[in-house]
C-alpha cells in the first residue's frame, strides 16, 4: 500500500521517527485491532489507535451510554447518553480519522461468537470489566494465537500486560488460575474509579498495540505493569508461563470455549426477585418503612461518602466496612431489610449477619438505585 499526500501529512510525526518511518506506518495502517469494550479503557485505546492510523478497529460492546460513564469514558459525550456505545464510539473515531475502518459488534461476547469475531483481527485488546469476559477473551486468544493486550482498573490502581503464549509469554490464566468468588471484588460501580486512570492504562495498552504492529521495542509479554495513581508509582512483576496451565500449558485440558459464567460461579438471574429467598424488592422495603407496625427495620450498609450523595430518609447508616465491629448494636431477633447501592454489598452483609446468628435478614434487590428508579425519582442516582 502507498500513503497519499493527506496521509503523509496526517502521520508526518510518525514518519520522521526512524523506528517507524514510511514502512512502519504502512504496517500500522495494515493492522486490525479488536477492542473488547468501548468504555473507560476502550475510549482512549480506540481514539489513539484511530489517530495513529490503525487500519481496522472492531468495537465489541452491547451497552448504552449512561451519565455515570461520562466522567471517564471520553469517547462519548453528553448528547450520546442513551445511545449504543459502539455507535457513539464509531462516530468519534470517524471524526478523528475517517480513513479508519470501524466495525461495530453490538453484541455481548460469548462462547458462541468469540472465535468467529476474534479471528478477523490481528490483535485483541481487553477493555472489559468482568471476570467471565476476561477468561473468555484469554481462552479465545490462546486458541487462535492472537496477542491479548490486557488492562484493568479499580479505584486508583491499574494493571497492564500482554498475554501471548505463541510469543513465548504466559496467558491470563497463568497469572490468575481461578476467578475470585462472586462479589469478592467490587466493580467500579461499587468501588469507584479515578476518572483519569483508564486514560493512563488505556494509553499504555494502545502503546503496546502499536509496538506489536511495528515489531519494535520490548513489549509487556512476560511482565505485569502495576500503577498507583495516588502515589504516582509504577511497579513491575515478572510473569512466567505455567506449564500446568489448562489452556496454554504443556498438556492443555481446555481445547474449546467453556461456560464462563459458570466457571466464575455466577448463577443465572432468578426469574423474579421473589424467587430468591434472601431478597426482597424495593416495594417491600417501602411497605416496611410506611408500616412501622410490621416491625421490620431497614438499614443502609453503604459508606458515609455515598450516604451524602443519596439516602433514604429515616434509614440508619451501618457501613459494611464497620459491620464486624458494630453488629453487636443490632438485635439478632429483629427482622432487617438491608440495602446498599445495587444489592451486592447488602448480600455480603446478610451473609455476615447470618454467621453471627441473625435469622431474619433480607437483602433489598437493586438497592438505592432501584429505589430511585421505581419508588422515588427525587433520590439521586450515582
Count of β-strands: 12
**CATH level 3 topology of the largest domain:** Rossmann fold
Structural class: alpha/beta
CATH evolutionary superfamily of the largest domain: NAD(P)-binding Rossmann-like Domain
Q: Please report the distance between the alpha carbons of the first and last residues.
A: 49 Å
Tally of alpha and pi helices: 16
Any guess at the CATH architecture of the largest domain? 3-Layer(aba) Sandwich
Sheet with the most strands: spatial strand order: 3-2-1-4-5-6-7-8
| Number of structural domains | 2
Topology pattern, helix = H, strand = E: HHHEHEHEHEHEEHHHEEHEHEHHEHEH
CATH class of the largest domain: Alpha Beta
Q: What is the overall pLDDT average?
A: 95
What Rg, in angstroms, do the CA atoms define?
A: 24 Å
Query: Helical residue percent?
Result: 25-40%
- Proportion of β residues? 15-25%
Q: What general outline do the C-alpha atoms trace?
A: elongated
Low-confidence stretches: none
For the sheet with most strands, the description reads:
8 strands, mixed
Write structural notes for this entry.
With 382 residues, the chain is α/β, with parallel strands linked by helices. It folds into 2 domains: 31-263, NAD(P)-binding Rossmann-like Domain (Rossmann fold, 3-Layer(aba) Sandwich), CATH 3.40.50.720; 273-374, Rhodanese-like domain (Oxidized Rhodanese, domain 1). Helix content is 34%, strand content 16%. It is built from 16 helices and 12 strands. It has helices at 5-10, 12-15, 21-29, 42-52, 85-96, 114-118, 131-144, 172-175, 188-191, 197-214, 260-263, 282-290, 304-309, 323-326, 344-355, 367-374, and strands spanning 32-36, 56-60, 101-105, 123-126, 147-154, 157-163, 223-228, 233-238, 279-280, 296-300, 335-339, 361-364. The strands form 2 sheets. An 8-stranded mixed β-sheet has the order 3-2-1-4-5-6-7-8, sandwiched between helices. The model has no long low-confidence stretch (mean pLDDT 95).
Amino acid at each position: 500500500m502507498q500513503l497519499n499526500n493527506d496521509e503523509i501529512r496526517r502521520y508526518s510525526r510518525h514518519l520522521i521517527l526512524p523506528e517507524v518511518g514510511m514502512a512502519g506506518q504502512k504496517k500500522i495502517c495494515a493492522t486490525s485491532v479488536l477492542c473488547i469494550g468501548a468504555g473507560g479503557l476502550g475510549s482512549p485505546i480506540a481514539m489513539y489507535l484511530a489517530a495513529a492510523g490503525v487500519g481496522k478497529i472492531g468495537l465489541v460492546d452491547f451497552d448504552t451510554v449512561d451519565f455515570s460513564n461520562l466522567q471517564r469514558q471520553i469517547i462519548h459525550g453528553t448528547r450520546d447518553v442513551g445511545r449504543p456505545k459502539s455507535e457513539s464510539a464509531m462516530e468519534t473515531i470517524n471524526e478523528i480519522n475517517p480513513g479508519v475502518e470501524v466495525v461495530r459488534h453490538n453484541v455481548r461476547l460469548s462462547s458462541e461468537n468469540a472465535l468467529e469475531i476474534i479471528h478477523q483481527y490481528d490483535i485483541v485488546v481487553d477493555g472489559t470489566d468482568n471476570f467471565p469476559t476476561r477468561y473468555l477473551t484469554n481462552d479465545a486468544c490462546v486458541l487462535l494465537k492472537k496477542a491479548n493486550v490486557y488492562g484493568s482498573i479499580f479505584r486508583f490502581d491499574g494493571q497492564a500486560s500482554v498475554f501471548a503464549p505463541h510469543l513465548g509469554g504466559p496467558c491470563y490464566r497463568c497469572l490468575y488460575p481461578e476467578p475470585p468468588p462472586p462479589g469478592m471484588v467490587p466493580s467500579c460501580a461499587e468501588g469507584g474509579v479515578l476518572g483519569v486512570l483508564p486514560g493512563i492504562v488505556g494509553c499504555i495498552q494502545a502503546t503496546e498495540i502499536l509496538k506489536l504492529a511495528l515489531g519494535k521495542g520490548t513489549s509487556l509479554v512476560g511482565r505485569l505493569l502495576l500503577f498507583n495513581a495516588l502515589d504516582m508509582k509504577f511497579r513491575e512483576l515478572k510473569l512466567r508461563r505455567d506449564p500446568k496451565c489448562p489452556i496454554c500449558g504443556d498438556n492443555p485440558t481446555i481445547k474449546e470455549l467453556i461456560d464462563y459464567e459458570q466457571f466464575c460461579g455466577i448463577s443465572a438471574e432468578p426469574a423474579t426477585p421473589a424467587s430468591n429467598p434472601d431478597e426482597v424488592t424495593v416495594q417491600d422495603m417501602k411497605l416496611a418503612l410506611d408500616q412501622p407496625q410490621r416491625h421490620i427495620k431497614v438499614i443502609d450498609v453503604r459508606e458515609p461518602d455515598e450516604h451524602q450523595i443519596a439516602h433514604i430518609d429515616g434509614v440508619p447508616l451501618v457501613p459494611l466496612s464497620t459491620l464486624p465491629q458494630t453488629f453487636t448494636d443490632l438485635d439478632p431477633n429483629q427482622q432487617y431489610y438491608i440495602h446498599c447501592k445495587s444489592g451486592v454489598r447488602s448480600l455480603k452483609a446478610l451473609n455476615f449477619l447470618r454467621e453471627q446468628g441473625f435469622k431474619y435478614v433480607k437483602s433489598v434487590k437493586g438497592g438505592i438505585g432501584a429505589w430511585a428508579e421505581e419508588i422515588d425519582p427525587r433520590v439521586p442516582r450515582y
